[in-house]
């Protein structure tokens, strides 16, 4: 049996270490065999003895799977006798990884990292250990540190695919893609530069850049002639990047960069005195989400010179302070948008044959209701112009708020949170369903320069989307007035649609709308849904309106995807009917199977997150389904749905309730009962193949009964050659020209990743240079059918530059039924490989693609290859 922790903690090692090599206890045991041992005996026989017996013990412990003790022995050996490093490196690594896994599983995290540190003292250049430590750090949420390790492992061994993949995985988090967009937005760059130049020329000669990113605004100030420039950046990666960039531009000594949040800065510790200008672009699509209000309140109190006094005082000088941007105007507008709707509200009354009436209230995590709720964000972001299916403007844009960042005297900034909730009225101009409020702003850098983040502008900006959450659909009519409450709480601008004025009547949009109310909220398309959820609320205390169940937006879209569930339902039904017939035949054939067993088939759904598939399986009858849904509230929803759809409680089990940890998920229910079907969740919402999919599939194959099935049985990856400048702008700083005259691109472009995720291929601005083509096949049912590399040839349909290859999946549930991740109502997005160098092609050129799949990561390289193909 597995020996857990083996009674070994780190006290033995610590004490050995503190005794250190020279003061090893003097044992009387004689050294053992070996020429080397004899040679060294002269130096220190006791030590040699200890080394050889420890090495032996290490190996023995390893065999006994007592990794903790083995690790301690190895440490001792390698510290005392570095000569064994080459010999023991492999086993040492193995021991370390096993021991770390055990420590991890029991939450002894500090010890785990201590072990890695000790290991790295012995093998500082071991890229496998460095990378593995990064993986642990990543899982613990220490992204920056993890990235540092992946980066280091890559530097130690540039062709180490594990480290490269890991680095690509964190690069997105470390340096978010919008940094590329912003640096590629020449309009934005120029306007900031002009505003800064003017301010400096007018006398602001001490400058602080809050949230410096790559250092660009700080460098502008220096170039404009500012005497002193300071910059701060809270992200460690961005701070390090800024230091590199500033040094490469010869300003190392003249811009002082701090790795700090501006709120932690003070005079004179961080900067010697107050500054006359703060420049910042710490704004997100919702304007305040990056904390600009708090930062500026703090800056005015602690870091900036006092503001200019009177209106008449135009001349700036070095005795007063000011901020760029000077202020902002926020706009909002009501929109109808199917794409937003299906990600935030349950639309389907029936999913895969199940009535959803008893589901209770399902909410997306984006909500701006009056209730205080920390688990939700008030808005999400979208580029409206790229939403599939588009959107309809139901009102004119309306000013929701104006803010002056320099108006300190009337305490404009401090007053923002305490400003009363303001009500604004938006005249409805077009009839349509109210799905969301879209919000954007104009950022007034100074009197002359401003940036707009509006949906019509050709900028890098997205808009903030405040989805309407009401369980009811509500159709606005022309001449209605929509009443919106505007407030500012927890550094967020909050907008909430509260009511509609129609023909002199006020219709409340509150979620708990009284159905008999004079207002006529249009009920859900299916009245039964309304009635049943009302009933559910009456019946159980836990499902009153306070008790909703939260689902991710993508899970909501999944539920609304009826085609997908219907396909599953049909495929499951086909399999189960087949197996039932088979078991009946067996039974009449007089086998020894018990009557109960012969009637029950076992189905396991190992989807990540919320999934109805186990329930759909159980709904087929004579099926015992196991769900991997973990969250209690989500399990309760499934239980309620089981109950209301007449599925007996015994036919639905929650698999994780039975097992201690994840490792148990893919185990058979009991020795006799192999699974009839295992449902694997193979594609992530972002458009990538799920990690470890093929490992899971091979485990699943082993656990299937004869005639059993893995869903899906196969996935086919399709792709297309495209020319897309948009994708390039998001992936790297483009062009040979320096950015505003500064050398920035080579530094930030180190964080370029070759695979883009969360794309919407249907609205991606691009030219198709080929037809869709099959790139790769993953067979989940047949191990022998798989490969890791493939060459595909494709002919271009027109000339241009191949910059990227978007890809998507056809998911084959069985031989006849499949779903595409590209379908209109898919909850999946697409991904794309962006080529390192664009490839210029002529129409009808043949392109050879080398496609590789390594641990669920697809990589593609493309070459022109017009040599005729040999026909056999
Ligand atoms: N992205 C918008 C936000 N920081 C832009 O660490 C628009 C998103 C966006 N540093 C698509 C397109 C776009 N003290 O590096 C960051 C951040 C740092 C601070 C020190 C502080 N108080 C702060 C606050 C933030 O400032 C940098 C820029 S913040 C956001 C900018 C292109 N998706």
Automatic annotation (TrEMBL):
InterPro entries: Arg_MeTrfase, PRMT_dom, SAM-dependent_MTases_sf, TPR-like_helical_dom_sf, TPR_rpt. One of its GO terms (cellular component) is nucleus. Pfam families: PrmA (PF06325), PRMT_C (PF22528). The keyword S-adenosyl-L-methionine applies. It is found in: Cytoplasm. It catalyses: L-arginyl-[protein] + 2 S-adenosyl-L-methionine = N(omega),N(omega)'-dimethyl-L-arginyl-[protein] + 2 S-adenosyl-L-homocysteine + 2 H(+). Residues 19-48 are annotated as: Disordered. Residues 765-859 form the Protein arginine N-methyltransferase domain. This is Protein arginine N-methyltransferase 9. It comes from Crenichthys baileyi (White River springfish). The lineage of its organism: Eukaryota, Metazoa, Chordata, Craniata, Vertebrata.
């Amino acid at each position: 049996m597995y020996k857990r922790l083996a009674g070994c903690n780190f006290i033995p090692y610590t004490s050995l270490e503190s005794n250190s090599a020279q003061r090893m206890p003097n044992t009387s045991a004689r050294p053992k065999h070996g020429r080397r041992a004899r040679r060294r005996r002269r130096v220190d026989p006791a030590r040699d003895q200890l080394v050889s017996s420890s090495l032996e013990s290490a190996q023995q412990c390893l065999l006994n799977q007592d990794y903790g003790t083995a690790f301690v022995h190895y440490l001792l050996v390698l510290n005392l006798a570095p000569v064994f490093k080459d010999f023991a490196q492999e086993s040492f690594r193995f021991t370390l990884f096993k021991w770390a896994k055990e420590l991890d599983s029991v939450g002894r995290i500090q010890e785990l990292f201590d072990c890695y540190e000790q290991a790295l003292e012995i093998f500082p250049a071991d890229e496998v250990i460095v990378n593995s430590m990064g993986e642990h750090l990543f899982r613990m949420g220490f992204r920056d540190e993890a990235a540092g390790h992946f980066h280091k492992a890559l530097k130690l061994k540039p062709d180490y695919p594990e480290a490269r993949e890991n680095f690509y995985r964190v690069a997105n988090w470390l340096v978010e893609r919008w940094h590329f967009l912003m640096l590629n937005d020449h309009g934005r760059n120029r306007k900031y530069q002009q505003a800064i130049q003017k301010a400096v020329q007018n006398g602001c000669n001490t400058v602080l850049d809050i949230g410096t990113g790559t250092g660009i605004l700080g460098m502008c100030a220096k170039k404009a002639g500012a005497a002193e420039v300071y910059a701060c950046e809270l992200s460690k990666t961005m701070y390090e990047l800024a230091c590199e960039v500033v040094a490469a531009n010869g300003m190392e000594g003249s811009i002082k960069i701090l790795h700090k949040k501006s709120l932690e800065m003070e005079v004179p510790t961080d900067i010697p005195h107050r500054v006359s200008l703060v420049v910042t672009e710490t704004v997100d699509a919702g304007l305040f989400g990056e904390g600009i209000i708090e930062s500026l309140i703090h800056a005015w109190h602690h870091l900036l010179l006092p503001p200019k006094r009177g209106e008449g005082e135009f001349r700036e000088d070095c005795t007063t302070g000011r901020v760029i941007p000077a202020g902002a105007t926020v706009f909002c507008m009501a929109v109808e948008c199917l794409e937003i709707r299906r990600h935030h509200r349950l639309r389907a009354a029936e999913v895969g044959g199940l009535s959803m009436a008893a589901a209770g209230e399902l909410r997306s995590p984006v909500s701006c209701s009056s209730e205080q709720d920390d688990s939700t964000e008030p808005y999400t972001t979208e580029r409206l112009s790229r939403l599939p299916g588009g959107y309809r403007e139901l009102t004119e844009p309306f000013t929701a708020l104006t803010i002056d960042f320099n108006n300190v005297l009337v305490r404009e900034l401090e007053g923002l949170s305490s400003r009363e909730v303001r009500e604004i009225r938006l005249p409805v101009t077009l009839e349509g369903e109210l799905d969301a409020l879209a919000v954007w702003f104009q950022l007034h850098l100074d009197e002359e320069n401003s940036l707009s983040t509006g949906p019509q502008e050709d900028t890098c900006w997205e808009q903030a989307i405040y989805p309407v959450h009401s369980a009811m659909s509500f159709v606005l009519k022309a001449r209605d007035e929509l009443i919106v409450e505007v407030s500012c709480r927890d550094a967020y601008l909050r907008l909430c649609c509260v009511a509609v004025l129609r023909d002199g009547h006020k219709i409340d949009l509150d979620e708990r709308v009284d159905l008999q109310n004079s207002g006529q909220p249009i009920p859900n398309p299916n009245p039964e849904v309304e009635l049943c959820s009302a009933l559910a609320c009456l019946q159980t205390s836990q499902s009153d309106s306070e008790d909703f169940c939260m689902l991710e937006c993508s899970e909501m879209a999944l539920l609304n995807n009826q085609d997908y569930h219907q396909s599953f339902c049909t495929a499951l039904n086909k399999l189960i009917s087949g197996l039932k017939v088979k078991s009946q035949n067996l039974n009449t054939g007089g086998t020894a199977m018990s009557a109960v067993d012969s009637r029950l088939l076992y189905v396991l759904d190992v989807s990540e997150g919320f999934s109805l598939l186990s329930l759909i399986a159980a709904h087929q009858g004579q099926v015992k389904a196991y769900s991997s849904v973990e969250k209690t509230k989500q399990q309760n929803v499934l239980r309620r749905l089981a109950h209301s759809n007449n599925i007996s409680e015994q036919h639905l089990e929650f698999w994780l309730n039975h097992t201690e940890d994840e490792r148990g998920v893919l185990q058979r229910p009991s020795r006799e009962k192999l699974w009839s079907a295992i449902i694997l969740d193979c594609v992530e919402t972002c458009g990538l193949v799920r990690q470890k999919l093929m490992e899971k599939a091979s485990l699943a194959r082993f656990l299937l009964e004869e005639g059993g099935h893995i869903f899906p049985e196969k996935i086919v990856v399709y792709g297309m050659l495209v020319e897309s400048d948009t994708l390039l702008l998001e992936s790297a700083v483009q062009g040979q020209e320096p950015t505003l005259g500064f050398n920035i691109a080579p530094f930030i472009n180190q964080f370029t990743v070759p695979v883009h995720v969360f794309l919407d291929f249907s609205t991606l601005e691009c030219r198709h240079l080929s037809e869709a083509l099959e790139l790769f096949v993953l067979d989940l049912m047949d191990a022998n059918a798989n490969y890791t590399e493939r060459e595909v040839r494709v002919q271009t349909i027109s000339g241009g530059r191949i910059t990227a290859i978007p890809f998507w999946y056809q998911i084959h549930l069985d031989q006849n039924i499949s779903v595409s991740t590209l379908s209109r109502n898919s909850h999946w997005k697409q991904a794309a490989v962006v080529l390192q160098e664009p490839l210029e092609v002529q129409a009808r050129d043949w392109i050879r693609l080398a496609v590789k799949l390594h641990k669920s990561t697809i990589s593609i390289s493309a070459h022109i290859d017009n040599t005729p193909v040999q026909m056999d």
